[in-house]
Amino acid sequence: DTLDSAARILAVVDIYEALTADRPYRAGMPSHRALQIIHEEGPARLCADVVAALETSVRDERVGGP
To answer: Within 10 A of 47 (CB to CB), how many other CB atoms are there?
Structure first.
């Protein structure tokens, strides 16, 4: 509740990027799995509106959206 909107967005995007990016010790996860983890781990910690916006963005990207 104490974070401003920019910090809330950065928190969600940082987690998503960390899960989907290739690392020296593991391959990046597919976006659907990363979103699943965010949903499982994030409800008490992450802004639901930002998570929903990320999901919309990822979905639009997959289907060649705007």
So the answer is: 17
Report the share of the chain in percent with pLDDT over 70. Answer: 94
What is the C-alpha to C-alpha distance for residues 64 and 61, in angstroms, rounded to an integer? 5
Q: How many CB atoms lie within 10 A of CB 27?
A: 9
For position 54, what pLDDT does the model report? 95
Cβ proximity of 38 and 12 under 8 Å: yes
Residue range 42-51: mean pLDDT, rounded: 90
Whole-angstrom distance, CA of residue 59 vs CA of residue 5: 22
13 with 48: CB under 8 angstroms? no
